[in-house]
Recover the amino acids of this structure.
């Protein structure tokens, strides 16, 4: 999610395991596909020297030739093994260099082409990765794992139709491998075809019921479809993910949602990103009605606004020593343990649950004639996908008379304003934002916030500020499918891409709605 008041924590990628996966999964989002790397390769292939056998001593020259062939084979194999070791150690640039050197010596090595493709894809050199996979397919078209890898690459390039073809080929060759079915499911997930995705996740789980990533993405698919009972139950799978941030806590029992909390101190534990914490903070007052005292753990940047959540008794910064408590539960487990369904979610979300911290004063000086103050967030983090919308796309609304625009960017993308010469059209608030309390105070002074999918969008919604959100074609589970509203935030309106990487349709719709809103405000101003 984009940064509203601080720099988000970067997650490191996972290193490649033996003949299995080089993957990473984030608890707040969906899994990435599982590539297969070969751990043994002969430096042979079509048109290559024979891998072994006795050399007939017909002549000294023939023996010398055979020795040269054997030496070359050893050199090629050594390059591959060194490349594989680097790959498995996460030294991807070295792996690419060594695989490439091996292939220059002998290009007839399908396993090496496959591994090169995996390494290149991890480096986001997708076109080169696809070329490598295709070279491998020419040499060994019967390799199911190769076709699955190719499908993964095509999916990441958002060439979904081609990805489906590649994955179907993998499944035709071998449908007994759980990752092949799972990877196909990820394509349907990215196409927002969640029923098809669920079918493939279930097929993978039929092979291995304990398949963590399939259980995780199955949960997210259910949530995207509004199947909350199954979704929240499956959402607990995040505890088993490779980079699970929920640390063990054995000093007290975990609350199951049923145990009587009267007179007890409950610790609500921090996890995941800023936006997730803001989103799930709405459930804190429900717990406070049951418990004797609520202790809420959160990251430092969130402390000022989390103090304004009703029912919070004690705030503790994540990483600091914890006060005494009787029971605990991760914040994002509350919907599951409390049995929150669709109707309950709408009721809980009907009213704002955050306010600016006391003592935060905002003084804005919009130009005369301003009838609409608009906050802007157009760029965010790049992983797992770049959710940014180029600010150039928003130029039609930035030129509108009667509106004053304020940038809430606090990262390097603040420079976009100067780069495009927009400082006269957009006021940069970055120097005034040090935490989410500052952001909250400034947002409450806005008539509208226009944001990409980011923590500022959550903050605006939680404050009850109208927020128009630009959403990628591949939806996040919490924004569901094919709807312009959100059960989480009544003041939110969603503008969705209708094709991958194409902002033209949502921006055009947003621009039209903005013109209508601005004209209405101007008419109201004239009648006062």
């Amino acid at each position: 999610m984009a940064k509203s008041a601080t720099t988000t924590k970067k997650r490191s990628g996972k290193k490649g395991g033996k003949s299995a996966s080089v993957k990473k999964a984030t608890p707040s989002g969906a899994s990435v596909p599982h590539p297969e790397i070969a751990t043994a390769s002969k430096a042979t292939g079509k048109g290559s020297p024979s891998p072994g056998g006795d050399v007939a001593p017909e002549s000294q020259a023939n023996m010398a030739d055979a020795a040269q062939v054997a030496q070359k084979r050893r050199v090629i194999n050594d390059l591959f093994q060194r490349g594989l070791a680097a790959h498995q150690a996460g030294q991807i640039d070295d792996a690419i260099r060594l695989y490439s050197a091996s292939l220059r010596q002998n290009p007839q090595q399908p396993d090496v082409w496959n591994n090169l493709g995996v390494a290149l894809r991890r480096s986001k050199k997708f076109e080169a990765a696809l070329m490598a996979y295709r070279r491998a397919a020419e040499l060994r078209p019967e390799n199911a794992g190769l076709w699955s890898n190719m499908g993964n690459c095509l999916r990441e390039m958002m060439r979904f139709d081609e990805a489906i073809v590649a994955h179907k080929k993998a499944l035709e060759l071998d449908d007994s491998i759980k990752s092949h079915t799972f990877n196909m499911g990820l394509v349907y997930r990215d196409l927002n075809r969640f029923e098809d995705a669920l079918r493939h996740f279930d097929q993978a789980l039929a092979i291995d019921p304990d398949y963590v990533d399939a259980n995780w993405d199955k949960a997210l698919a259910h949530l995207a479809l509004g199947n909350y009972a199954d979704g929240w139950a499956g959402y607990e799978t995040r505890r088993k993910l490779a980079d699970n941030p929920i640390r063990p806590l054995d000093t007290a029992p975990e609350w199951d949602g049923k145990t009587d909390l009267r007179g007890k101190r409950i610790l609500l534990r921090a996890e995941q990103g800023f936006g997730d914490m803001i989103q799930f903070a709405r459930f804190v007052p429900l717990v406070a009605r049951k418990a004797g005292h609520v202790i809420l753990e959160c990251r430092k940047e969130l402390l000022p606004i989390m103090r304004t959540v009703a029912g919070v008794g004690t705030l503790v910064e994540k990483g600091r020593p914890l006060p005494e408590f009787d029971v605990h539960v991760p914040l994002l487990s509350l919907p599951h343990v409390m049995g929150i369904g669709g109707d309950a979610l709408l009721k809980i979300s009907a009213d704002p649950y955050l306010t600016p911290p006391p003592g935060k004063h905002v003084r804005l000086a919009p130009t005369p004639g301003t009838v609409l103050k608009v906050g802007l967030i157009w760029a965010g983090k790049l992983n797992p996908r770049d959710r940014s919308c180029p600010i150039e796309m928003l130029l039609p609304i930035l030129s509108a008379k009667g509106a004053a625009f304020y940038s809430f960017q606090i990262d390097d993308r603040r420079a976009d304003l100067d780069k495009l010469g927009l400082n006269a059209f957009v006021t940069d608030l970055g120097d005034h934002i040090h935490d989410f309390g500052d952001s909250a105070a400034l947002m409450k002074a806005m008539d509208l916030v226009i944001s990409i999918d980011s923590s500022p969008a959550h903050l605006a919604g939680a404050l009850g500020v109208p927020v128009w959100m630009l959403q990628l074609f591949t939806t996040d589970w919490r924004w569901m499918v094919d709807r312009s509203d959100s059960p989480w935030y009544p003041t939110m309106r969603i503008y969705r891409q209708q094709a991958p990487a194409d902002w033209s349709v949502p921006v055009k719709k947003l621009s039209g709605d903005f013109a209508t809103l601005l004209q209405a405000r101007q008419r109201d101003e004239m009648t006062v």
